[in-house]
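User: quick one, fold this
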Amino acid sequence: MLDPKGQIGVQEKELIITATILMLLVVVPVIFMTFTSRGNIVKAVEAYEPKWSHSTKIEAVVWIIQYHYRDSWCNYLQSTHALNPYKPIESEEEAITVEVVSLNWNGCSFTQILVSRR
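Assistant:
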């Protein structure tokens, strides 16, 4: 799976790696904050009174991170849809037609593949 042969396989490998990285960008900080906040659970019983006011810098950083994360996912989805299985593959070689007939009967699987050149 991570040693693809061909152009489409390489693109699919890149999509798998990109999706994994994008998901880890969310999961790792959540896991980190979960384990580091164990000491604060005892303090949570006390009244919560924050001693800070509105910070434009913090809000800008938060929104910029969200924007870039959303933009990364949009680019990922666009590249996923670019790998349309119904779109013909660009090649200099002559196209072949593969006709597949499959029958699954009582746990037995029968597959016949007919390959013909146009």
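User: anything notable?
Assistant: The first strand starts at residue 96 and ends at 105.
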